[in-house]
Amino acid sequence: MDVEQIEHEGKKLGYVLRGHLKERGRNFPSQEEDYLQLGFLNLKKGEWVLPHEHKPLERKVLETHKAVYVVSGSMKFHFFDNKKKIKEVKLNGGDLIVLMKGGFGFEALEDSTKIIEIKQGPYPGLEKDKEKFSLEG
Asked: Where along the chain do its domains lie?
């Protein structure tokens, strides 16, 4: 599977799944301890994910993880650790990035770049949820 790990000084900051994944079957690049679980399924006609529902389970979440899917266009994600920029990653339509630790910012590289963001809730509001800082770090 084409998964790029983004790490810095032993911290897993996130990972990228490219839209051209061709591996068959059910693949879960996330680890059991990750707060946001991600799977990629490439199924043949007639294959099932059997009907199921998830049991009520209290979970303690201490970090906000976010998944960003680039529907179309392209973007550049900037990774920060301790408010210092450490890496840039370009994503194109069909790519997905999971953000786990550290800071990040992103910019559209094309007009009409479309993305979908997914993260845990509930959202307590900007003041409690985010600390903004300079792009230069």
From this structure: 3-40+61-129
